[in-house]
Design a protein that fits this description.
The protein is of the alpha/beta class and about 170 residues long. The protein is built from five helices and nine strands. About 30% of the residues lie in helices and about 35% in strands.
Length: about 170
């Protein structure tokens, strides 16, 4: 099944000049959503990870489904002050300022093989921060995985870990 017809393109969202690739239409189509998760799980399963990390917020849906499919645990990477208990933080630079992401301190153990998942790879800024955060806890980031990659933005060059994406868009 070609999954691209299940991705809706929305021009000028969230601001003029941006073409937004909306996965909600994929999520609403049961057979296409199942195929997408099955294809990602097949690729991720090859490396036999210990844990899946998902990036807030659409990455949670993909990562949760993958963790369930693979029968392994899932942990959340969230924005500052969104997780209870002790957390480990990582501050990173954006185009116009800074941001911070966090993970619960007990989410990873040194040496664990992890895959970090998000719905879309654009510039790679948030994913490179998530990779650095996982490594800060001693994890081995074996792969980063996405439904969609905007290859024209060259985000994979910034991530700092191997990249797998189901669909690529060149413009």
């Amino acid at each position: 099944m070609d999954l691209k017809p299940h991705i809706r393109s929305i021009p000028d969202f969230p601001k003029p000049g941006i073409l937004f690739y909306d996965i909600s239409t994929l999520l609403m189509h049961g057979p296409a959503w199942k195929i997408a998760i099955d294809l990602l799980a097949k690729e991720i399963g090859k490396i036999n990870p210990d844990r899946i990390l998902g990036i807030e917020s659409r990455g949670f849906m993909v990562a949760g489904a993958l963790a369930h499919s693979l029968g392994i645990g899932f942990a959340m990477v969230r924005k500052k002050n969104k997780l209870p208990g002790p957390v480990v933080s990582y501050k990173y630079t954006l185009e116009y300022g800074e941001d911070m992401i966090e993970i619960q301190a007990d989410a990873l153990k040194p040496g664990q093989k992890v895959v970090i998942v998000d719905d879309l790879l654009a510039t790679g800024g948030t994913m490179s921060a998530a990779v650095a955060l996982a490594k800060k806890l001693g994890a081995d980031v074996s792969l980063t995985a996405y439904l969609i990659e905007l290859s024209f933005l060259k985000g994979r060059e910034k991530v700092g870990a191997p990249v797998f994406s189901l669909m690529q868009y060149d413009k």
